[in-house]
Design goal:
The complex is a heterodimer. By secondary structure, chain A is mainly β. Chain A is 0% helix and 49% strand. Chain A has strands at residues 5-7, 10-13, 19-24, 31-37, 44-50, 53-57, 65-68, 75-79, 88-95, 104-105, 109-113. Chain B is mainly β. Chain B has strands at residues 3-6, 10-14, 19-21, 23-26, 31-38, 45-50, 56-58, 64-68, 73-78, 87-95, 100-102, 106-111. The chains are: A mainly beta, B mainly beta.
Chain lengths: 114, 112
């Protein structure tokens, strides 16, 4: 178990720029989740994949956010035209394919918008 | 809508004190319940989970939680805390569509 890996660990960018984050899940896990977490809050669900299929997407996710998992392995989360309010920790988690299976979290990518 | 409420934002205890952290959820269907812990400088990790069977579940490091369906609660307990239990604790529910909702967390500080 090599754990969930996220890259980069930190990203600083100017407002209006596009950013992309990568997540490599645990290899045998077919579910992959993305969350956003701000200070004093719990992880906020953004979306999840079962293999390459995006099965659920938060209504809070605006059109500026998109996620892909093209081959059912790693995933990318892209934010277009970043805004100040996008500053947060972006967490990725993976799990086996049932809802009762626990999620294994990465260390997150901290996004700071200047 | 699915939601999770954790009653205590910050709890401060002395070593050997007993701990109970409250968690209530709102969802009309079947849920799978989890407690996760985040130690300082580390990522979130599973403490314990419930999805069926005995409503009293035991987790790592002496933690346990009781699912009370009638109260929509899943409170976390530990009879005697240690300094090393200082961490942030999150209650979470996952519904059968796979959507997960987390509470806002409880920061536990244990004084030696």
């Amino acid at each position: 178990d090599t754990g969930v890996s996220q890259d980069p660990r930190h990203k600083i960018t100017k407002r209006g720029q596009n950013v992309t984050f990568r997540c490599d899940p645990i290899s045998e896990h077919n579910r992959l989740y993305w969350y956003r977490q701000t200070l004093g809050q719990g992880p906020e669900f953004l979306t999840y994949f079962q293999n390459e299929a995006q099965l659920e997407k938060s209504r809070l996710l605006s059109d500026r956010f998109s996620a892909e998992r093209p081959k059912g392995s790693f995933s990318t989360l892209e934010i277009q035209r970043t805004e100040q309010g996008d500053s947060a920790m972006y967490l990725c988690a993976s799990s086996m394919g049932q809802e009762y299976q626990p999620q294994h979290f990465g260390d997150g990518t901290r996004l700071s918008i200047l | 809508a699915q939601s999770v409420s954790q009653h205590n934002h910050h709890v401060i205890l002395s070593e050997a004190a007993s701990l109970e952290l409250g968690c209530n959820y709102s969802y009309g269907g079947t849920v799978n319940l989890f407690w996760y812990v985040q130690y300082p400088g580390q990522h979130l990790q599973l403490l314990l989970k419930y999805f069926s069977g005995d409503p009293l579940v035991k987790g790592i490091k002496g933690f346990e939680a009781e699912f009370i369906k009638s109260k929509f609660s899943f409170n976390l307990r530990k009879p005697s805390v240690q300094w090393s239990d200082t961490a942030e604790y999150f209650c979470a529910v996952t519904n059968n569509a796979g959507k997960s909702t987390f509470g806002d967390g409880t920061t536990l500080t244990v004084k030696p």
